[in-house]
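Record type: ASSEMBLY
Status: queued
Input:
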Amino acid sequence: MLKTRLVAVDKDYPQQQLINAAAEIIRAGGLVAFPTETVYGLGGNALDEDAAAKIYAAKGRPQDNPLIVHIQHIKELEGIVEDVPPGADELMKTFWPGPLTILFRKKPVIPSGTTAGLDTVAIRMPDHRIALELIKAAGVPIAAPSANISGKPSPTCAQDVLEDLNGKIDMILDGGTCPVGVESTVLDLSGPVPLILRPGGLPKEELEKILGHVEIDPGLSPGQRPHSPGQKYRHYAPKAHMTLVEGPVKLQIAKIIDLAGSLESSGKRVGIMATAQTRQEYPLGIVLSVGDRDAPLTISSNLFSILRKFDRLGVDEILAEGISREGLGLAVMNRLYKAAGYNIIKV
Ligand code: TXA
Ligand code: MG
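Status: finished
Output:
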């Protein structure tokens, strides 16, 4: 059991001596959780196979699920990738730092322990001062999956990380809550059409402004085989059983009231994940609003913390409303599908 140090850091002006202490841990092969604009990452030296092994062990992560490598300057790319796929230059210029991860052919310096044996490496530049300063001070790229126990909702504040990983990692840099709240968009540019392997914090519509037509991995549909190893696992899952209701909002509300009624009469504690527009409509259940339907960022930024909150409230069943798939809504619905284990009712 390690002693996990929780260190508060200023997110706008990170204190250099705190960053240096964290960077020293990374260089020595240890693990540091840090905030990014999407979710907290569990960081280790991306060039060190043993550090990667520690990340897998701390998270209980399946061995075939590759890690994302984080850099702080575009110049770092040439040391770690063979080439830059068509379209990537323009995307990096436009969206980095930001919630976009791109696949590259890796150079041998990236050990196969970091990429789960794949010859590609997923790379992103996070839009967060603490993350960027940490990578810079470490002097090496940092491999970082989300800093949660594998399968649980991703952590969007330091307290979430502590809840999952206390005693298993060396340090947590507490930089407050993550503004985007869902993980980065993972993009594969190696085929004839750009392919989104995981919808995320950078909307498909934004990518299409630069790339033209972009497709979503058909393997992400229920029962299919996704291109990205991580997407095949049950994920983001609260302890409670969860049902997602999709369709016109009025019908969603009626269905959820109906389901909540029967669940409560059989003695179950019911949580309802509503929105700012609908929360007043429910006469029963523990009702929490995840955000505003007209401002999807309010929903993405709250999503994982609301799932964790329902767990703390000890509900047996979560009934969640579906939202539009426009913009960030696509990533939110992807996470809700997985959180619900594809337990979906269409009305
Ligand atoms: O926003 C994010 O991306 C966060 C923060 C910490 O940066 N990180 C994150 O990492 O979400 P993780 O490990 O939870 O998810 C990484 C995803 C997985 O679905 C994994 O399968 C996919 O990226 N991935 C990584 N490398 C890949 C590769 N070479 N080929 C295909 N998919 C890859
Ligand atoms: Mg994850």
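Annotation: The first strand starts at residue 5 and ends at 8.
Annotation: The first helix runs from residue 16 to 27.
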